[in-house]
Amino acid sequence: MSEASEEATQAVREHRDELRPGERIRAALQSRAAMVVAIAIVLMLLFILAWVQGVGIERIASLTAWGIMLGGIIALGAIGLTLIYGVVKFPNFSHGAMVTLGAYIAFAVVSAMPGQSAGLGPFSFGWDLVLGLLVAMPLVGLVALALDRVVYRRLRRQHSPLVLFAMASLAMAFFLRSMIYLIWGSDFHFYYMGRPNPALHLPLGIRVQADQVFILGLAVVLVIATYLLLERTRMGKAMRATANNPELAQIRGINTERVIAWTWIMSGALAAAGGVMYGLMSQLRPEMGFFLLLPMFAAVIMGTIGNPRGALVGAMIVGIAQQLSSAFINPAYGPAVAFVLLVIALLLRPQGLFAR
Amino acid sequence: MPLLTVDAITCGYGDMEVLSEVSATVDQSEIVSVIGPNGAGKSTLMKAVFGLLRPWQGSITFHGREISQLEPYDIVKQGMCYVPQVDNVFTELTVDENLEMGAYTLPERDVAERRDLVFELFPRLKERRGQDAGKMSGGERQMVAMGSALMLNPSLILLDEPSAGLSPKMVDVIFERIVRVNEAGIAILMVEQNARESLRLAHRGYVLANGENRVDGTGEALLNDPEVGRLYLGG
Q1: CA nearest to A220, candidates A73, A24, A77
Q2: What is the pLDDT of residue A29?
């Protein structure tokens, strides 16, 4: 056995020296360094394009800051998406709809409050939106859990192929979106109408709104909380163990169905938080989550699918690239920038930045 | 009453029958070795005992309780652990985390104490406790896998090919540890390619062939049985 494996290693070693130059170049192109360079080039290109178009350095700095904030929102979605992929092993196309649902549930809470509360401190929103966020997070978590119980668990028990899971989640995306249309209609909504939210002037000429600072702060808090949960708590370690080797997890006495349930709740709650922030930053519309789906997938794949830290890094890159591009092209094309990054990742290194 | 009784189980994958009416028992604090040619159904027997495969017929009792319909995570709680042949560590978790997952069904406050006992048996693991298990050698991984199984202080450990793919020196180390684990009162049911070695340390052995019981007896009796020697121990 060991002799045979030694022989095999030897053969591989010899073979490596025989690689033709073409193969060697290809291997170099697919390395992590090549991908980092490619992403850096795209970002630099965006900076340079903005510069050439006569966009001031202060505006570029502001756009970068907004990009980090958008990256935070994308990250909340992408971390949930990557966790679901890791633990439940399928790409959840209904994740965007969960983002939207979170935003609308918070909207329902804000609308249900008698009169609109005054802004909290420098922010445009009041305590009712905070309440909406606190309601939306667990509620969307439970919706995600319910979908798993009704749809995905059944598929899991039948050992269904991946494509069935993916199609089912696409169906759930349409289902959730239809529900949102039915309940809240197709009109745009705002959490607060005509609330001023003046920009703050920060050093380096960066202009951001207080709300945007809040969004970034909340994203940071939630990302750190997720990290601590995964690294320090027993359930978090069980999630990583289940993602790494589901069969061994069962053998070790981990109830993997319970781990899956908590993963859905967590990813739903994070998606809801992302949705509320996204709604606060722009406006609510039934398609909002759907347009976040592509950036989220780009972030997940760039940062190695299944890897939460990678999803965070990927989300920041996508967020900054999208905002920078809005300096010289219509912001509606933002997802196209995410698409370009996704294609680069798939061509160069489909296994992503953080593959082992 | 034996600790584990496998009574005439028949099972397989899909509609392919792998085991037909196989029986075996393991007593308290006993080492039992199952040998036989490739494809005899040795690993399948382990999976059936541990609830990873539902027997079609027959019964499995552990501590006098029927377990053939239980899920693995319930069987673990009864005090049985299983170390598979491959993929038996969480490669992306550290040694410490692997051991903690081994004690998943224990209260959190007991983890550190159990871990110290495992470190006593495998000092090497203590040195490398912060390292990802995926970056360790085959022998060290086997130690992590056995250590994780020991975290629960089980009354029975199932070992599937503990020596597979290890260097001869490491095989000796692992076999020596198996004896030490057993001396602590833990019963062991193991499947081994390395039949001669494993019968030497086993109290009793079973020979499986074509998914059926062929011969059984004490380890020594099987070693000295000329037919077993010729057919299953390579002469």
Answers
A1: A73
A2: 76
Which residue does chain B place closest to A231, by CA atoms? B97
Are B23 and B6 within 8 A, CB to CB? yes
Chain A nearest-CA distance from B99, in A, is 10
Q: Are A325 and A337 in contact (CB under 8 A)?
A: yes
Mean pLDDT over A236-261 rounds to 94
Indicate the pTM of the whole model: 0.88
Phi-psi region of A277 (alpha: psi -120 to 50; beta: other; left: phi over 0): alpha
User: Where do the H-state alpha helices sit in chain A?
Assistant: 2-18, 21-29, 32-52, 57-88, 95-112, 127-147, 153-157, 162-184, 210-232, 234-244, 246-251, 256-281, 288-302, 308-325, 334-348
**Shortest CA distance to B167 belongs to which of B144, B132, B194?**
B194
CA distance B70 to B50: 9
Contact check, Cβ <8 Å, A234/B108: yes
Spatial CA neighbour of B82 closest among B165, B191, B219, B210: B191
- Look at residues B207, B196, B203, B197 and name the one whose alpha carbon lies nearest to residue B218: B203
pLDDT(A356) > 90? no
With a cut of 90, say whether residue B158 has pLDDT above it.
yes
| Contact between chains at B105 and A253 (C-beta distance less than 8 A) | yes
For A281-340, the pLDDT digits (tens) are 888 999 999 889 999 999 999 999 988 999 999 999 999 999 999 888 888 888 889 999
Angle between helix B138-150 and helix B168-183 axes, rounded to 10 deg: 10
Q: Which residue type occupies B63?
A: H
Q: Tell me the pLDDT band of A113, cut-offs 50, 70 and 90.
A: confident
